[in-house]
Amino acid sequence: MRWVPWISTASNRKGKKDMHRTLILLALLIIAASGCSKKERASTEADTPPEPEGQTAAKPDGPPNIVIFLLDDTGYSDFGAYGSEIKTPNIDRLAANGVQFSNYHTAATCSPTRSMMLTGVDNHLTGMGNMIEIMADNQFDQPGYEGYMSNQVVTVATLLKDAGYHTYMAGKWHLGKAKDSLPAARGFERSIALMESGADNWEQKTYLPMYDFVHFYEGFEETTLPDDFYSTDYYVDRIKEYIGKDRGDGKPFFAYVSLQAQHYPLHAPKEYIDKYMGVYDVGWDEIRAKRYARQVEKGLMPAGLKPSPIAGAQPWKSLSKEERRVRAKQMAVYAGMLEAVDANVGRFIAYLEEIGEADNTMILIVSDNGADNNEQDKAFPEWYAKNFDMSYEAMGLKGSYANYGPGWAGVSDTPLNLFKGSASEGGMRVPLIMHYPARLQRGVTTNAFAYVSDITPTLLELAGVPAHQGSHGDRKVHEITGKSIVSLLQGETKQAHEPNDAVAYELAGSAAVFRGDYKLMRNNPPFGDKKWRLYRYTTDPLELDDLTKSEPKLFAEMKAAYKDYAKEVSLIEVPDDYNPLTQLQKNVKRNQGKEQTKKVPMLD
Ligand SMILES: [Ca+2]
Predict the structure, then answer these.
(1) 322 alpha carbon to ligand 1 midpoint, in Å?
(2) What per-residue confidence (pLDDT) applies to 54?
């Protein structure tokens, strides 16, 4: 099935005539859907995107539908629009007709990002001050360190629902599995949600030795997955189904599509893997160089950068023939998995077209953190050999397990340094595309800084819903710490954050402060030595030239900004001798025999 690029025109959200038409369309769709193959996928043939225009189209009336596609562990360069060789024509078209960010930042791991994105509040106030597995002794049971999304915050889903939106969620939740922490309790009317940090993409099965089982909830009820499950297809199907159920009542919808892809295990339908067999035989060094060259052409990255060798990866040429064969297929599976995501984005847009909602739907494409360099199969080889088919032939298919290690994670994060979990750019800088030609600029790439907690206030402003002022009903909640970036999206300003505004971040001792062109940062082991360093990160995104000595005043000011931030969010610093790996072992012992009712493992 192909979809046609839409043309944005001014239209009323729903006149009576439209509603009648919608009902007929809906009936046709239900009939059509019953005859559709489960494996129906949109074409991934690349249509040439329309010429970008630096202006918005006419404005529709009424609040927009809002859809977030959150990808897991997808690196800065993985979409075609960001320099990749992976075919993502549908996502690229959204970028070509929307606002593409080259300088968007998120938290370096899953659950802190998710809590901030959905509330607009800093992770030390949402309950995700640290992740439960690696929580330091002095942080346990402290406010802000609950280890799940606490009731001290209110979600954008709740606020939109209060304002008359339908609210849907499908995919990975990872913000708590107690009854009052489920998506159904946090503003989502309809939801199908995975509780753990990840899971098999082909069946209801754990992917980590520390979980016995993975849990899914439909609303408040625990549920099981169908036999023909493939995670990306399934979540998009479920969102379409939810939208279909409520069609015709005149309400807009908010849909949070929280994909398991591209998190381990790497799994993709065979036809997608086959497309990339052979593509990666040239190795990570060459693919990374080509991605960087395309980023320079696209104006996403400064020219002339000299990327360091990928941390933890051997030069491709030094690998044995057999190692190269296995490594090349790992990346082929990763690429196939991402093309399957793109095809589903296209399939979803085709559905919006069919129901007449494409013009008035804002679509966000974003990742929750940088690429993952970890290789669980090397850490627990016996467990994986026992529970999965680890053969080359099976790789990517049902029953298999694969991850892709630091070499390819370095490619995903091209040209940035380090990975998910670090406060370096490779952990925190990820793709963000916002597409809504009716009211936002079209075909614009912005190098303005934006941060994960900006998303909720931005969505609220576009929906015309006032941000709360620290209370929800009779409940006192934390005020939003992020900032609406609507004026940037609409081309009224070039920057969303003032040059002297500091935006700070901390997780497990790794931390960063962004201000203007500068970034102060430190990484805890295993990524760094805990020392603060200062970079002009806009021109030095690889963080190579430490300005601590040459810019002492700026260094002191930014450290002071971090101190202010730590006070504002009641941050509890990890002790000097803290090491997340030894803390993990300690906490495993601490939790042995304890019922983990609220504290879902957040290892990620
Ligand atoms: Ca993630």
Answers:
(1) 30
(2) 58
* Measured CA angle at 452 (ends 500, 341), to 5 deg: 145
What whole-number distance in Å separates Cα of residue 101 and Cα of residue 426? 15
Cβ contact 169:256 at 8 Å:
yes
In angstroms, the CA 590 to CA 340 distance is: 41
Q: What is the DSSP string of 100-125?
A: EESSEE--SSHHHHHHHHHHSS-HHH
From 105, 110, 166, 497, the catalytic residue: 110
Determine if residue 164 is left, alpha or beta; phi over 0 gives left, psi from -120 to 50 gives alpha, anything else beta: left
Dist. CA 425 → ligand 1 center (Å): 15
- Report the distance separating Cα 440 and Cα 462, nearest Å: 10
Pairing of strands 221-223, 216-218: antiparallel
CA of 233 to the centre of ligand 1 (A): 19
Cα–Cα distance for residue pair 498/162, rounded to 1 Å: 32
CA of 140 to the centre of ligand 1 (A): 23
- Chain centre to alpha carbon of residue 586: 30
- pLDDT of amino acid 601: 45
User: Rounded to the nearest whole angstrom, what is the distance from the C-alpha of residue 114 to the centroid of ligand 1?
Assistant: 9
- Helices marked H in 256-380: 270-275, 284-298, 321-354, 376-379
> What was the pLDDT predicted at 244?
97
Distance 263 CA to ligand 1 centre (A): 7
Q: Torsions phi, psi of 534, nearest 5?
A: -120, 135
Q: Are strands 518-522 and 99-101 parallel, antiparallel or unpaired?
A: unpaired
Query: How many CA atoms are closer than 13 Å to the CA of 472, on its beta-carbon side?
Result: 23
pLDDT at 61: 72
Å from CA of 430 to ligand 1 middle:
11
Whether omega for the bond prior to residue 592 falls within 30 degrees of 0, making it cis, is no
**How many whole angstroms separate alpha carbon 185 and alpha carbon 384?**
35
Nearest CA to 68 among 365, 432, 360? Answer: 365
Label residue 125 exposed, middle or buried (CB < 10 Å: 0-12, 13-18, 19+).
buried
- Of 166, 174, 263, 478, which one is the catalytic site residue? 174
110 is catalytic: yes
The CA distance from 82 to 292, in Å, is 9
Residues 6+ positions from 227 with CB-CB distance below 8 Å: none
Per run of 10 residues, the mean pLDDT along the chain (length 604 residues) is: 28 37 33 33 43 54 94 98 98 98 97 97 97 91 94 97 98 93 97 96 93 94 98 98 95 98 98 98 98 98 94 96 98 98 98 97 98 93 96 98 98 98 98 97 97 98 95 95 97 95 97 98 94 98 98 98 98 94 83 47 48
**Global confidence as pTM:** 0.89
Peptide bond into 415 cis (omega under 30): yes
- Contact between 496 and 485 under an 8 Å Cβ cutoff? The reply is yes
Domains for the chain: give ranges and CATH numbers. 64-499 (3.40.720.10)
Q: How far is the C-alpha of 527 from the C-alpha of 86, rounded, in Å? A: 28
Q: How far is the CA of 337 from the centre of ligand 1 (A)?
A: 15
Residues 6+ apart with CB under 8 A from 118: 149, 155, 156, 157, 175, 186, 256, 456
Structural contact between residues 177 and 193, judged by C-beta atoms closer than 8 angstroms: no
